Amino acid sequence: MVNPSPQQTWSQRFESALHPAIARFNASIGFDIELIEYDLTGSQAHAKMLAHTGIISPEEGEQLVAGLEQIRQEYRSGQFNPGIDAEDVHFAVERRLTEIVGDVGKKLHTARSRNDQVGTDTRLYLRDQIGQIRQQLRQFQSVLFALAEQHVETLIPGYTHLQRAQPLSLAHHLLAYFDMAQRDWERLGDVYRRVDLLPLGSGALAGTTFPIDRHYSAELLGFGGVYSNSLDGVSDRDFAIEFLCAASLIMVHLSRLSEEVILWASEEFSFVTLKDSCSTGSSIMPQKKNPDVPELVRGKTGRVFGHLQALLVLMKGLPLAYNKDLQEDKEALFDAVKTVRGCLEAMTILLQEGMEFRTERLNSAVAEDFSNATDVADYLAAKGVPFREAYNLVGKVVKTSLAAGKLLKDLTLEEWQSLHPAFEQDIYEAIAPARVVSARNSYGGTGFDQVRQALDRARAHLSEP
Question: Exposure pattern of 275-314 as b/e (b: 16+ CB <10 Å)?
């Protein structure tokens, strides 16, 4: 195990190096190396700003930018692999930069603290990741949209309390998840606006005496604005918590869909068939095909929830401004990003090529229950019978039918008319599953015409920038 060098970056106030165990405990290089590309980008902008304002010479600025770019190439090629002696990615970069360009490398940290530096790196990272997650959400939505287009007139039982309720268009069911993903996409766009503030120039907590130009730095890095309070700039992690909230909701939606796929794939439902590319077998039961993808997504959801809770607890008692506790935000953030992205990718593949709806089974399933009972009540109400009276009458019809081992479609016209004289031959058409679905034509309903309009709205969302 490598021990830290006696020569530290700290001032001459310190007479000795950290204890090796404390150095290991203190170090973040093991995980914040994830930020290296963003640290290099932020440092290049800082160097350009220092030269732009005359704090360093243009030549020194060019040397710093070129040296930082060399480190980028060394890292990408595997030549630059800082260890625990660097403590964190920021010291590692600065030390290597000084090796490359000499003493001018020591000027890079002018008018900057690690506090505003790490805040900048983290925001650069999260801006990038939010953009990529939003692209993944669009891919996920595109697959849901394509499936919905194929299944407008495929029927599926709808449930409340996990009991058969009313039949639905399968497309309507799928588009519910499309709309959830749309909210996720929009929510991340809203979070992005809070991430898109630059803390660089806040210094350790109080700003700097150097004549820096924070807005120039923001322009170089593409930020929409800068923090107006230096204390808030270095200590704010609201943006990270907001992201974890949005990430948690993405996982909620993926987990709900996962639970349905797990049920649909069971022998009891048999609504979908899982393909070999997205399922595994049992080590002792050769007949089994397990829904690994949705089960793992469902399981990983709690992991993201945990990161959100951890960061809320981390922040709740911190006094202003920066505290070392804030080092703990990164592993939670990095893991949540990786988990959400991995789950979105897996679920998109599962829907696109890993499962197939059993349409015959779905269409027969809606004819095997009493989910058309509400339509009998609606039928009577349309003929002038008060709805509550009709509702109670239909309850009696269902009870009688169950006792006789019949479904509503099996009752004769004489049996219907013995229950109420308003029933006529058209009752059979009114309770046919396809008719039951198509009749629900209120805005946002499952009626086929409404579903086609919903597809038009979904198509418009997919074209939004």
Answer: eeebbeeeeeeeeeeebebbeebbebbeebbebbebbeeb
Distance CA 57, CA 62 (A): 9
Structure tokens at 170: 């399968």
Residue 10 predicted with pLDDT over 60: no
Is 161 assigned a catalytic role? yes
Model pLDDT, residue 1: 33
Residue 62 DSSP label? H
The residue annotated as part of the active site, out of 161, 283, 442, 463, is 161
Of 57, 266, 270, 282, the catalytic one is: 282
Tokens read off for 74: 């060394």
What would the pLDDT profile of 144-158 be if each residue is shown by its tens digit? 999 999 999 999 999
**pLDDT tens track for 293-306:** 999 999 999 999 99
Structure tokens at 393: 């009458």
Q: What are phi and psi of 349, to 5 degrees?
A: -65, -40
Rounded to 5 degrees, what are φ and ψ at 377? Answer: -65, -40
Contact 208, 117 (CB under 8 A): no
For strand 163-169 and strand 155-160, is the pairing parallel, antiparallel, or unpaired? antiparallel
Q: Tell me the residue length of the chain.
A: 465
